[in-house]
Amino acid sequence: MKMTTFEPDAQGHFGPYGGRYVPETLMAPLEDVERAWRESREDPEFQAELRDLLHNFAGRPTALYEAKRLSESLGGARIFLKREDLLHTGAHKINNCLGQVLLARRMGKKRIIAETGAGQHGVATATVCALFGMECVVYMGAEDMKRQRLNVFRMRLLGAKVVGVTYGSRTLKDAISEAMRDWVTNIATTHYLLGSALGAHPYPVMVRDFHRCIGIEARAQMLERIGRLPDTVFACVGGGSNAIGAFHAFIPDEGVELVGVEAGGRGIMPGEHAARFDGGSPGVLQGARSYLLQNEDGQVMLTHSVSAGLDYAMVGPEHAWLHDQGRASYAHCEDGAALEAALRLCRTEGIIPALESSHGLAEAMRRAPGEKGKVYLVNLSGRGDKDIDIYRANFPELDRDDAEGGAA
Amino acid sequence: MSRIAELFATKKAAGQSVLIGYITAGDPAPERTPGMVAAMERGGVDLIELGVPFSDPIADGPVIMKASERALAAGTTLRKVLEIARAIRAHSGIPILLFSYLNPLMRYGFEKLAAEAKAAGVDGCLLTDVSVEEAGEFVTPMRAAGLDTVFLAAPTSPEERLRLVAEHSSGFVYLVSRTGVTGEQAQLSASVGPLVEQLRGLTKLPLAVGFGISKPEQAGETAKLADGVVVGSAFVRLVEAHGQGADLEAKLEEFSRELKAGMVS
After folding, report:
1. Which stretches does DSSP call E strand in A152-298?
2. Cα–Cα distance measured from residue A333 to residue A319, given in angstroms and rounded to the nearest whole number
3. Using the beta-carbon criterion (under 8 Å), do A300 and B165 form an inter-chain contact?
């Protein structure tokens, strides 16, 4: 299996997926972004500045941590966590935001727009805009604003304008549509800082490149720590940026199994989940062709997940290709299992994970018992502070004044 | 010669510009659309753009976005849009252009759609979210069935892209008057004139201008530059305001007449 098999062609196609499905008005701006990005890859000054920011501002490299108590409690595989939750702003999203804000500056753009689901990308975008003195507008579904209040306020503290989107499902999908409408109207001044490995070329491959550091670091850390590669890498998949960042360096390692975990929501029934590989089929949405949750008339279906960051109808095109090629497999995890996994990590390791990351963790925990001798790597993509209200609502017994703690 | 090409040729010979009216099929209800189109035709609309509603219309402003939601809520599917086209064609020779996002058509199947659309009396199709680079699988079956494919040219398109857009288009080329989504605006963009001039040098196809034209004076100004004038959101706003009333058809006819008057004065 050659690595080049999985690289996109010049038009951004991963096999039949990806591409550029946008109004003509956006074609030239996308070509401009692609040109700037390709040039930046060859520019040592750009790369040095990005490395410096990732190290001194964001906190890379992130730790690789062996979750011994968690592993012992499951009685099987050794579980290692890649601690992206320790990055500045609390999730992997900052990697991509630092890269794209440097690109925006290179292109002479002074205004940044972004979409956000869980708010982590919005916070990371607001952060880099504050750092570079750029105007920042973040589109967010009204439903997501309700369930991620903390992040809405963080964005505002950082100087961003948060615009609520009040139509459609009022979640990430509608925020992306609104960001695209803003971009097509203000392209002369504005860079669209898309936050996942989604959308029209070059975004999926560009966003992946800015997150590749996750897998590159983790791979080297595993070799250094235990002298071998993990048997399986787990990561949650919404659009799929943390997962593709974690997977990419391992793609040539045939012996390493790659497992993406989608949101199973309340179960695989129409409108109740966001497991694109389990209920979806190839379609086109918001710039790319990939697996899409759609009805028989080609209308995009509503999705549900307890985690706003996974609550989206399409998966990134590179994942679709890895899926079809059999290089990665995709599982799904329901809301309840993700919540349980999160609580278990809190109680065994003293780490409060994001609900998104808890999906990847839950699948690793499900498989771990009895897998003695196996090594799992879970990308812990974000921390759970933003999800406290949801945890509170789901663990009401902990919210009473007489609540008792308890070990897992 | 296609019905669309013939319309532009006839109008050109008469020294007139073509009035193109957009409405979203199935808004407020599928059974209303043929009567609304008939009213627009009586008022002077020469070519009808029939919007296929989509759940995620990224190229549309709030007016057409809401029309899409209403049409979907009323149960409009692509199959119903083709029935609507057949109903229009039963009483009228007005050229019909489907105006759609890709996904509902892809899901239906391009070959099947091309054959059924042709049989229903549709004359062509325009996709808002498909670049010429990705259009091959759509253009080939459409053309094979004798349907026109219309592509958008934008103010941001460099010359080599304009050339590609023209090459992939038949019937006419649709010029987007300004950067942005569909919707009315107070003044016509100054970039239209130069864009029309540039395209004239690249293609012999008729040129129609749309996005933001909502008033008879704007239609008149545009008609001086281009072979066709597209009015969309302003029609849809009437549907939004009068969709539940008995006078919707009368309003559409009256507005069409005003636009047409603006174009010939």
Report:
1. 161-165, 190-192, 232-236, 257-265, 281-285, 287-292
2. 17
3. no
Q: Which of B27, B41, B46, B49 is the catalytic position?
A: B49
Is the Cβ–Cβ distance between A171 and A308 less than 8 Å? yes
Q: How far is B76 from chain A (nearest CA, A)?
A: 10
Reported ipTM: 0.95
The pLDDT value given to residue A407: 56
Q: What are phi and psi of A19, to 5 degrees?
A: 85, -165
Distance of CA B41 to the CA centre of its chain: 14
Q: Which of A24, A27, A286 sits opposite B56 (nearest CB)?
A: A286
Residue type, A77: A
> pLDDT of A166-189, one tens digit each?
988 888 999 999 999 999 999 999
Burial B41-80 (b: 16+ CB within 10 A, else e): bebbbbbbbbbbbbbbbbbbbebbbbbbbbbbebebbbeb
Give helix B248-264 / helix B33-43 axis angle, nearest 10°.
Answer: 30
Are the beta carbons of B61 and A181 separated by less than 8 Å?
A: yes
Query: pLDDT for A40-68, tens place per residue?
Result: 999 999 999 999 999 999 999 999 999 99
Catalytic residues of A: 93, 115, 381
Greatest alpha-carbon span in chain B = 49
Q: Name the CA radius of gyration of chain A, rounded.
A: 20
Query: Of A28, A180, A187, which has the smallest distance from its Cβ to B157's Cβ?
Result: A28
Average pLDDT of B21-32?
Answer: 98
Question: Which residue type occupies B206?
Answer: P
Quote the CA–CA distance of A67 and A64 in Å, as a whole number.
Answer: 10
Candidates B58, B133, B180; nearest CB to A286: B58
Hey, which residues does A91 pair with through a beta bridge? A382
Do B14 and B46 form a contact (C-beta atoms < 8 A)?
A: no
Q: Amino acid identity of B55?
A: S
Residues in A touching B131 (Cβ below 8 Å)? 20-22, 24, 27
Task: Give the contacts of B253 (CB within 8 A, at least 6 positions apart).
Answer: B39, B40, B42, B43
A25–B165 CB contact, under 8 Å: no
**How far does B265 lie from chain A, in Å, by closest CA?**
32
The reported pTM is 0.96
Closest CA to A95 of A196, A171, A202: A196
CA-atom Rg of chain B in angstroms: 17
Nearest residue in chain A measured CA to CA from B72: A299
